[in-house]
């Protein structure tokens, strides 16, 4: 038996429980992974509350979580390229917040050994989403790009990816995040009233592209600033996509293990930071979502399935002296 987050009806964080479930068995082409870290994401709140029941209904008892990092424990028939003990990063919809995850090997990338579990695990969700948003608006060197909620999970990665393409980033945030954004080379502006005027002051020569990771009227502001629709992407406002014909590219449009590996390589080389605000043990999953729902997370909140102090002991118990990933 192993632990897994489950809920039996739509509702608030109080419906979440830690269930004892059978350890999954990997089918052909699958891996069984011992989860070490599983992040949490705002979209999971909507699914659990039933807000997306029309498009993504739950099947009770429902599992939770998408992105994760962990050790390969065993491989199903026909799997090549992975072995027990490998450190991997993966995407397992509604299944990641569990001690063990069985998933198709083609949804998994190797984790560079120099990247921490906490930094690696969010890459298949917010990392890929940020990449999709940046790719949609194609920033060029010397341009100015606005990123809304630039200290949030998607925003802080999108802002850094834009900077890597040589553009200037104006990032919206609360004042408590201004110094943090400056430390990443991002020009902060307050996301409060008067945002359009704040952006005009920060970008007197105009805004070339706008990446919205919050919704709440950001696309209206981008249009009012004169940014062409094809240089605007929102991951949080599907109505604006229909109204203005802007891009709505997100995780599902870009996910691949190759892209996850590329993002992990940027982290390994110190070119992309994945800020972690809080690490909760799995048992405190409800509290973790209460914090997330306040919508002031800097970077990511993650769940730890194997406490940091126990990781080396558990790795040795599972794999002995076998070394991790091929170099
Ligand atoms: N479809 C997909 O594939 C996909 C994948 C991932 C995420 N998403 C969506 O993308 C959005 C962002 O996700 P996330 O994980 O980045 O969220 P998040 O980490 O919870 O975002 C938190 C950030 O929002 C900022 N914020 C709070 N109030 C704001 C306001 N009024 N205006 C602008 N920013 C504000 C906060 O900044 P301050 O603390 O500085 O105020 C904080 O840094 C969500 O809607 C999520 O559902 C979609």
TrEMBL record:
Residues 11-303 form the Enoyl reductase (ER) domain. One of its GO terms (molecular function) is oxidoreductase activity. It holds the Pfam family ADH_zinc_N_2. SUPFAM superfamilies: GroES-like (SSF50129), NAD(P)-binding Rossmann-fold domains (SSF51735). InterPro entries: ADH-like_N, ER, GroES-like_sf, NAD(P)-bd_dom_sf, YIM1/Zinc_Alcohol_DH_Fams. Gene3D superfamilies: Medium-chain alcohol dehydrogenases, catalytic domain, NAD(P)-binding Rossmann-like Domain. This is NADPH:quinone reductase-like Zn-dependent oxidoreductase. The lineage of its organism: Bacteria, Bacillati, Actinomycetota, Actinomycetes, Streptosporangiales.
């Amino acid at each position: 038996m192993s632990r897994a987050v489950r809920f039996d009806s739509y509702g608030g964080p109080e419906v979440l429980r830690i269930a004892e479930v059978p350890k999954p068995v990997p089918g052909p082409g699958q891996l069984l992974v011992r989860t070490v870290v599983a992040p949490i994401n705002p979209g999971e709140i909507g699914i659990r509350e039933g807000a997306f029941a029309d498009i993504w209904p739950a099947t009770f008892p429902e599992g939770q979580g998408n992105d994760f990092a962990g050790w390969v424990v065993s491989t199903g028939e026909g799997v090549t390229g992975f072995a027990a003990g490998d450190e991997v990063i993966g995407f397992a919809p509604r299944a990641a917040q569990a001690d063990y995850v069985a998933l198709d090997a083609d949804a998994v990338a190797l984790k560079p050994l120099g990247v921490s579990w906490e930094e690696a695990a969010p890459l298949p969700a917010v990392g890929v989403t940020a990449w999709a948003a940046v790719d949609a608006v194609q920033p060029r060197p010397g341009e100015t790009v606005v990123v809304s909620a630039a200290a949030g999970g998607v925003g802080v990665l999108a802002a850094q990816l834009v900077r890597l393409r040589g553009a200037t980033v104006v990032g919206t945030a609360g004042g408590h995040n201004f110094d943090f954004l400056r430390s990443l080379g991002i020009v902060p502006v307050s996301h409060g009233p008067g945002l359009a005027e704040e952006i005009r002051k920060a970008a007197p020569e105009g805004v070339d592209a706008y990446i919205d990771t919050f919704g709440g009227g950001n696309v209206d502001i981008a249009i009012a600033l004169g940014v062409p629709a094809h240089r605007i992407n929102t991951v949080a406002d599907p109505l604006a996509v229909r109204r203005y014909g802007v891009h709505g590219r997100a995780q599902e449009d870009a996910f691949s293990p190759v892209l996850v590996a590329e993002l992990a390589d940027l982290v390994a080389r110190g070119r992309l930071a994945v800020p972690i605000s809080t690490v909760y043990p799995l048992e405190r999953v409800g509290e973790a979502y209460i914090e997330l729902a306040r919508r002031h997370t800097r970077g990511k909140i993650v769940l730890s399935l194997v406490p940091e102090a126990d990781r080396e002991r558990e790795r040795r118990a599972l794999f002995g002296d076998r070394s991790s990933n091929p170099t």
